[in-house]
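FW: tagging you since you asked about this chain on Friday. Here's the raw sequence from the shared folder, copied in full. Didn't touch anything.
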Amino acid sequence: MGNKITKEIQSLVEVELRKGASNSRIATLLGVPYNEAVEMIEEIKLSFKPDVGDKIIFTFRDEKMAGVITKLLKNSAVVDISWDLSSDKMKDLMEDRTIVNFKDIEQTVL
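HL: got it, structure written out here
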């Protein structure tokens, strides 16, 4: 299955999953049978799901933020905010720790 997943397919599926799209919608967008799409989706999910300790960049109210994941929830993560890498505008609005939906994570920083 891995050889069928191109960078374009992976990117499309990741974006749609972060939006909360259903497996059937993703299958339609990919133009593949539902069962094949589910296999691809599961493989892609494993490759991009964040983990505890990951440093991430995310968006909150259209501001770029950064932090470290301290706990995973079902579709979100508890993140300790790195204020030196985040928007200063948000200091008055946010605590030092927040919940970030997976769909709002833009990238994992190595």
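FW: The helical segments are 7-19, 23-30, 34-48.
HL: agreed, and The longest helix spans residues 34-48.
FW: great, closing this out.
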